[in-house]
């Protein structure tokens, strides 16, 4: 099968892992099940700007409820212009259509390009995708854009808009737990947050391959802009459900740090992306992260989790992936 010159050597890497599978217990049977498709809770954020106090409270309650019951929700009238989202998508597509060798060797976007999964030891740990994972502190560096000069201005504006939206949503979630401290907003700024540009090439060898393996996010919250292709699935009521795509809405999901901080009131939910046999998929994720030395404690007494720094949490994740092939996460930090 011919792979376009702009796509990474995913087939080569996946085939190599497949040849090793017979020697490992690494079956991927769970992806064979038919998935129910659901729409995430939809929240109109115009309610937060309403002069009607009851409408503000209703909107805030909807955000908190979805964060507790689903760990995911989608938002409209979010303050990020649809024109900016369109521009960002166009720039992202141009970037990923660059030759693979250019993406992999030319130091684009602070040398942040990755594909597949370098730590995978079998097919079920493999990501059929490529991505640029860029610290916000680096996106204004003109030298790292090479020939993609128009991407820089759009991405700077996009990151600023996402940062504002993420802090607004985090503030709501903090207030709904009757916590007045603005600490989360203070420790999560442009010095510690990230953007990730994702591309999931079509995968004609199988539709049972992960575009992104099952995981929870390790941040406070994530904001995702995806296209119309679909493929995102999340764990709901102990089963996988497919998320119906809505490219005019943004998806928000709770990360591990907010679950720990809220003492399990808000849920960091496992999710994954499935590869598509006919269509490629694009998405952009913004991650609201603190600095590595930030201490994550509970907003309530009798915390379920021990206090830990974000750096300690990330290190434990890396060690687990290295030793056992997957993330363990918050259960490592139970009291």
From TrEMBL:
Catalytic reaction list: gibberellin A1 + 2-oxoglutarate + O2 = gibberellin A8 + succinate + CO2
GO-annotated molecular function: gibberellin 2-beta-dioxygenase activity; L-ascorbic acid binding; metal ion binding
EC category name: oxidoreductase
EC number: 1.14.11.13
Name of this chain's protein: gibberellin 2beta-dioxygenase
SUPFAM superfamilies named among the record's database cross-references: Clavaminate synthase-like
InterPro entries: DIOX_N, IPNS-like_FE2OG_OXY, IPNS-like_sf, Iron_ascorbate_oxido_reductase, Oxoglu/Fe-dep_dioxygenase_dom
Annotated family: Belongs to the iron/ascorbate-dependent oxidoreductase family. GA2OX subfamily.
């Amino acid at each position: 099968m011919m792979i376009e010159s702009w796509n990474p050597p995913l087939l080569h890497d996946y085939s190599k892992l497949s040849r090793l599978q017979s020697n490992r217990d690494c079956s991927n049977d769970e992806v064979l099940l038919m998935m129910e498709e659901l729409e995430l809770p939809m929240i109109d954020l115009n309610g937060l700007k309403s002069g009607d106090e009851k409408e503000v409270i209703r909107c805030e309650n909807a955000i908190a409820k979805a964060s507790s019951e689903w760990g995911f929700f989608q938002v409209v009238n979010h303050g990020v212009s649809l024109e900016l989202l369109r521009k960002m998508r166009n720039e992202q597509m141009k970037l990923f259509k660059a030759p693979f060798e250019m993406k992999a060797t030319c130091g684009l976007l602070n040398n942040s390009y990755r594909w597949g999964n370098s730590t995978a030891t079998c097919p079920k740990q493999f990501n059929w995708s490529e991505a640029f994972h860029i610290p916000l502190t680096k996106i204004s560096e003109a030298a790292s854009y090479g020939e993609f000069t128009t991407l820089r201005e759009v991405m700077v504006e996009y990151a600023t808009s996402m940062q504002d939206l993420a802090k607004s949503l985090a503030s709501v979630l903090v207030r709904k737990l009757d916590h007045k401290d603005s600490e989360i907003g203070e420790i999560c700024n442009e010095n510690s947050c990230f953007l990730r540009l994702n591309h999931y090439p079509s995968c004609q060898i199988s539709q049972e391959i992960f575009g992104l393996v099952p995981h929870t996010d390790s941040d406070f919250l994530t904001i995702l802009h995806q296209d119309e292709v679909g493929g995102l699935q999340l764990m709901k009521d102990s089963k996988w459900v497919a998320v119906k795509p809505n490219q005019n809405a943004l998806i928000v999901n709770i990360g591990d740090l907010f679950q720990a901080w809220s003492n399990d009131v808000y849920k960091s939910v496992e999710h994954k992306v499935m590869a598509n046999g006919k269509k490629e998929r694009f998405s952009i994720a913004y991650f609201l992260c603190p600095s590595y030395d930030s201490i994550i404690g509970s907003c309530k007494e009798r915390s379920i989790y021990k206090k830990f720094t974000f750096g300690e949490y990330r290190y434990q994740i890396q060690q687990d992936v290295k030793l056992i092939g997957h993330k363990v996460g918050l259960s490592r930090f139970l009291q």
